[in-house]
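Long-time lurker, first post. I've been practising inverse folding by hand and with some scripts of my own, and I keep getting stuck on stretches where the structure tokens seem ambiguous. Below is the full token string for one chain I'm working on. Before anyone asks, I'm not after the true native sequence, just a reasonable design that respects the backbone. If someone could post their per-position residues I'd love to compare against what I wrote down in my notebook.
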């Protein structure tokens, strides 16, 4: 706590010492038209003439063709106006600090590029960056009414299995909310309607957390920055096996210095799931063949409330405050039937286990941030303090009935009751500062402190003589505290002409000190870690032409075991297949090398990335057969893994009413797990692909069809089965465009399921899980004013 107070004091001092320059609001305003009518969705880009490779400010015209660029330092600039279907217009601006009104800019049509139907319905879907790409979530209409997990199924290079497991290049990425670590770790707790964009950072530098082996996914929630009073309402309903309902309301008011926003969304759904499994214990005669069938009936509820307040006293300083409240409920009614036969396939045992599980989660998140701009736009300072709190309660009633070979019940039902209460707090303190050291070089440096406090209480009680008696062997508590202090330095520079540099490179080093402690109630599992590690990163980019480059990079990263992996609780919901954490896990250390190529044409773009990853003390789930025939699943350090592969994204727009994005990731894994007693998989090839098809069949109408395929994925002892599905979304503009009607069909052919197949010397087992993933949703959206149309309703398409 002493270090925590010191860190807070440092941030408060930085806020206090920041100098304010309370001057007049510096802005550039204007209107864009085609000579007759105002043009909406024009990209207005402001670039510094000294360094034209960097965007100084950016805006998009509203329905009246108006735009405003605010908080601009004095200097010489070039204004660019871009929209597919029109010729790009450029204008030089000398800005002295006084507001400028440039009047009306008239764009000329480019009839050779697109037809008139498409001109007014274009919006960027994927925007490439030096570190990956940004996917504008509003362009996705095939997951309307879903969650962040559903949305991620539509993101290029991201793989999501039927159980919601999210991977990049075969490993779980670090997931951030608004650029911060959050207590919201379940992506089903975020409604898709509240997401503005998703950033995929496949090649993070030393600026980012080292605990990002396969990359970073940053989910940015909606926040309006347009002037005036704006609002939007969305209503949706549909059904899968059961009914579903969602709604969203957004309100915003922005003045010259203040911006107030309030948003609420909810989602309620009923779901079903069927699970089938079979196992053979090779050297156990009695419990030799095990057959299981499970049926789940689930009711889900999700509600989010978001508030943001921004204050910009002048063009140099801005403050913001955000608050997020989240409530989630899940009621799961589960029935598990287990049949056990001997090695001669004769009856051994038969039981039906029924459980009613009630889950309630509440998350609160607060964030304060400060941004400082300088006359030199290459210099900047920002700081933030965030804290999120998660309270999770889970209560389960269980009854087990045993039957003989004639299906006659034996004795009374065995009754059990469990609860698992969890409390978690995650706080972040961040300071970033960038400054030029020469005409061509910029240094970025900063500090990040992450502070996590977690405790859980698990209790299991058995019915004895009419009363529930706590079972001390199956009950425990777990407390975990962690503090991560990190500092970094990053040099960005280029060689050659400022306008079109031939070479760009960066060199970075990050130092992270990790201190954590964990203990159970009876101290049977206790650990304490304190270590300092350095994480270098470097990249070199050669620009072959203005729209073609080659890039190579290296980075060292770490995969620290998360709470689920460390928590020693053993979940006994399925008595024959219990699972739990392992408090003795060591972190993975990974060395990563990458080489990428990017090329863009007028109607096509292509990028590919070859990667090599070498990990020691690799963490994988590992199943171990116990003497009583039970298989215990726990994470283990399995040894070393080497992964190498290729990631490719291809975007095309061959004709005016159609565009597509195709992504394929393929990789080979070499596993050396000689430290484990049982046989494991030594080598495996996996791949997954995705195609996003966007159509504009007529004016105001949009159709989207997304296909996914994930091949079998290697595990330590076998493989997961392939996963594939097709989603479809349609949206039609109504009236003058302030209303939209949408239709969504997820998993059209009902093919999405998950499972695995394991084959070892001691046992083999197969398991498949099928949820009611095929569902139909109908949505209606309406805006008053017009500024939220981009954020919530337009959902336009472009391959740019």
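-- Answer (accepted) --
I ran through it position by position. Result:
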């Amino acid at each position: 706590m002493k270090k925590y107070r010191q860190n807070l004091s440092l941030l408060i001092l930085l806020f206090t010492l920041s100098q304010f320059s309370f001057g007049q609001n510096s802005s550039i305003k204007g209107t864009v038209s085609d000579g007759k009518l105002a043009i909406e969705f024009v990209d207005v880009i402001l670039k510094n003439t000294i360094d034209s490779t960097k965007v100084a400010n950016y805006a998009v015209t509203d329905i009246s063709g108006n735009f405003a660029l605010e908080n601009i330092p004095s200097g010489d600039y070039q204004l660019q106006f871009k929209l597919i279907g029109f010729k790009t217009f450029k204008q030089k601006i000398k800005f002295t600090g006084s507001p400028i009104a440039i009047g009306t800019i008239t764009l000329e049509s480019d009839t050779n590029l697109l037809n008139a139907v498409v001109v007014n319905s274009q919006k960027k879907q994927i925007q490439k960056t030096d570190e990956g790409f940004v996917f504008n979530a509003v362009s996705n209409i095939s997951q309307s009414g879903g969650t962040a997990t559903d949305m991620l199924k539509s993101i290029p290079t991201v793989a999501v299995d039927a159980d919601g497991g999210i991977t990049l290049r075969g490993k779980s990425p670090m997931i951030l909310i608004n650029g911060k670590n959050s207590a919201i770790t379940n992506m089903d707790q975020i409604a898709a309607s509240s997401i503005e964009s998703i950033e995929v950072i496949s090649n993070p530098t030393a600026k980012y957390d080292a605990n990002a082996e396969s990359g970073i996914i940053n989910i940015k929630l909606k926040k309006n920055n347009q002037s005036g009073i704006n609002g939007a309402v969305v209503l949706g309903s549909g059904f899968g096996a059961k009914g579903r309902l969602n709604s969203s309301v957004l309100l915003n008011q922005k003045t010259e210095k203040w911006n107030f926003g309030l948003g609420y969304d909810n989602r309620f759904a009923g779901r079903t799931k069927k699970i089938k499994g079979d196992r053979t214990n090779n050297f156990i005669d009695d419990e030799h063949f095990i057959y299981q069938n499970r049926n789940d009936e689930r009711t889900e509820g999700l509600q989010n409330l978001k508030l943001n307040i921004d204050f910009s006293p002048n063009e140099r300083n801005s403050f913001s405050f955000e608050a997020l409240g989240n409530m989630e409920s899940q009621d799961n009614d589960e029935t598990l039937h287990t049949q056990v036969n001997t090695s001669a396939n004769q009856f051994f045992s038969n039981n039906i286990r029924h459980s009613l599980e009630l889950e309630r989660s509440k998350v609160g998140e607060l964030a304060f941030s400060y941004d400082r701009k300088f006359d030199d736009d290459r210099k900047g300072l920002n700081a933030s303090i965030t804290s999120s709190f998660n309270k999770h309660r889970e209560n389960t009633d269980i009854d087990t009935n045993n039957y003989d070979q004639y299906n006659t019940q034996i004795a009374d039902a065995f009754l059990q009751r469990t609860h698992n209460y969890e409390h978690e707090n995650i706080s972040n303190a961040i300071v970033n500062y960038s400054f030029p050291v020469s005409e061509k070089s910029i240094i970025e440096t900063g500090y990040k402190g992450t502070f996590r406090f977690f405790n859980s209480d698990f209790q299991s009680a058995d019915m004895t003589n009419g009363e529930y008696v706590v079972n001390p062997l199956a009950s425990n508590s777990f407390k975990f505290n962690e503090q991560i202090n990190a500092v970094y330095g990053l040099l960005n520079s280029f060689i050659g002409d400022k306008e079109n540099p031939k070479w760009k490179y960066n060199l970075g080093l990050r130092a992270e000190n990790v201190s954590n402690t964990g203990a159970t109630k009876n101290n049977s599992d206790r650990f304490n870690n304190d270590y300092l590690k350095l994480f270098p990163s470097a990249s070199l980019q050669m620009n072959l032409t203005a729209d073609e480059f080659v890039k190579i990079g290296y980075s060292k990263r770490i995969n620290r075991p998360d709470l689920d992996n460390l928590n020693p609780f053993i979940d006994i919901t399925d008595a024959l297949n219990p699972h739990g954490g392992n408090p003795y896990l060591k972190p993975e250390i990974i060395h990563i090398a990458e080489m990428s190529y990017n090329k863009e044409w007028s109607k096509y773009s292509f990028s590919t990335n070859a990667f090599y990853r070498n990990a020691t003390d690799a963490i994988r789930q590992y199943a171990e057969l116990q003497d009583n025939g039970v298989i215990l699943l726990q994470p283990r350090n399995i040894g070393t893994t080497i992964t190498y592969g290729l990631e490719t994204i291809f975007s095309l727009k061959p004709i005016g009413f159609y565009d597509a994005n195709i992504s394929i990731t393929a990789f080979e894994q070499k596993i050396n797990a000689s430290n484990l007693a049982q046989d494991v998989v030594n080598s495996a090839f996996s791949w997954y692909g995705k195609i996003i098809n966007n159509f504009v069949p007529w004016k105001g109408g949009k159709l989207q069809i997304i296909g996914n395929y994930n091949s079998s994925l290697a595990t330590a002892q076998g493989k997961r089965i392939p996963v594939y599905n097709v989603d479809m979304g349609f949206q039609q503009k109504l009236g003058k465009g302030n209303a939209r009607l949408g239709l969504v069909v997820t998993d059209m052919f009902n093919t999405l399921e998950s499972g695995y197949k394991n084959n070892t010397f001691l046992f083999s087992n197969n398991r498949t899980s099928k949820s009611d993933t095929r569902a139909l949703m109908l949505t209606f959206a309406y805006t008053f004013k017009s500024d939220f149309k981009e954020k919530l309703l337009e959902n336009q398409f472009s391959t740019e």
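A couple of notes from the structure itself: The longest strand covers residues 409-436. Residues 10-24, 111-123, 786-800 have pLDDT under 50 and may be disordered. Happy to go over any region you disagree with.
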